[in-house]
Amino acid sequence: MLRIELMTWERARPEASRIRTTVFVEEQRVPQEIEMDDRDAVSLHALAILDDVAIGTGRLLPDGHIGRMAVLREARARGVGGAILVRLMEEARRKGLREAVLSAQTHALRFYRRHGFEPVGPVYEEAGIPHQEMRCTLNS
C-alpha cells in the first residue's frame, strides 16, 4: 500500500536525494550543483513509500511553494505524484497558507491543472527545461 510520509530534510535526504538525482540529474540532465539547494533544509519533505521502498518525493517551502516533485520512472502513471501533491497541499492548508505555488515543467501542466493549479505569466526556462509558474488557492 502506498503511503506518503512528511519529514525533515535530515530524515528525507538519503531517499529524496536518490530519487531527485535519478529523475532530475540522470534523466533530465539538470546540473547536479543546482539540484540540491539551501531551501531543502527549511522545507518539509514528502516521501512516497510503496512496499517499504521510497519511489517519489516532493517538498513544501514555508511560503507555500511546492517543488522538487519527482517519481521514479517505474512508478509513474500510478497516482504517486498526485498522492504526494495532495498531501503537500493538505499540509499547506493545515499551516494556514492561502495559496500553493509551483514551477511546473510544461509537459506536466495538465497534471497540475487536475489538482486545481492555474498557469500564471509566461513560460520560462530553468535548467534548460521550459517551465510555467502555477498557483492554486487553498480553501480552508
What would your notes on this structure say?
The structure is a single chain. With 140 residues, the protein is of the alpha+beta class. The chain contains 4 helices and 7 strands. A 7-stranded mixed sheet has the order 1-2-3-4-5-7-6, sandwiched between helices. A hairpin with a 2-residue loop joins strand 2 and strand 3. 29% of the residues are buried. The mean pLDDT is 94.
Key traits:
single chain; about 140 residues; alpha+beta; 7-stranded mixed β-sheet; about 40% strand; globular
Number of strands: 7
* Computed structural class: alpha+beta
End-to-end CA span: 28 Å
Strand residue content:
35-45%
Instruction: Give, in spatial order, the strands making up the sheet with the most strands.
Output: 1-2-3-4-5-7-6
User: Helix fraction?
Assistant: 25-40%
Q: What best-fitting shape do the alpha-carbon axes yield?
A: globular
> How is the biggest beta sheet arranged?
7 strands, mixed
The stretches of 5 or more residues where confidence is low (pLDDT under 50) are none
Radius of gyration: 14 Å
Average pLDDT number: 94
Encode the helix/strand succession as letters.
EHHEEEHEHEE
Tally of DSSP helical segments: 4
List the quaternary state of the chains.
single chain
